[in-house]
Design a protein that fits this description.
Blueprint: H1 2-19, H2 39-49, H3 53-82, H4 86-112, H5 123-133, H6 137-165, H7 169-196
Helix pairs in contact: 2-3, 3-4, 3-5, 3-6, 4-7, 6-7
Length: 197
Amino acid sequence: MKRIFVYFLPLAIGFAACNNAGTNNNNDTTMPSDTGITDDMAKDVNRDVLPSDSVGDDAKRVVKAAEDGLFEVKFAQEGQTKASSASVKALAKHMVQDHEKANKELMDLAASKNIMLPTAISDGQQKDINDIATKTGKDFDKAFVDKLESAHKDAIDLFEKAADKSEDPDIKAWFAGKVPVLRSHLEMVQKEKDKLK
């Protein structure tokens, strides 16, 4: 079984690169979201490559953080485009920049640990984006900020647990180092939410 996945991993990465070859620009720091390497596919590969329970749990946390990071960037890009408020647009831009940077760091960390990451958000996450994208004006701004708030609360929970429970010291340190940034993001989002009331 391991042999199959050893051959599958380069093949999957090759398809991902070919599928996105014409759409990357040199400033992209996130993984492409249209290659179709799903969360489940990444978990299957990681399960065979990293069979130890503790290493496997660390990989699951990294995979979840990567998928959520892709969502944050894609969702914030929608906010940059559709928000009616200048301050909501500025918030969205800040989120794109910070989460792209974190995604790049996580990609490098995962590569050093032989952890395969997803390159596509889940269907549920895409549905969340699509549902909010149907709104306009202040309705969009409110829904966008509400979703950012809930996403950051979930992320803080995930990252705090990962910082506490991860076995690998590098993974543990990465998660712990991002908690203050996520808390700062949540404060920014909540201030914006208060302005929209």
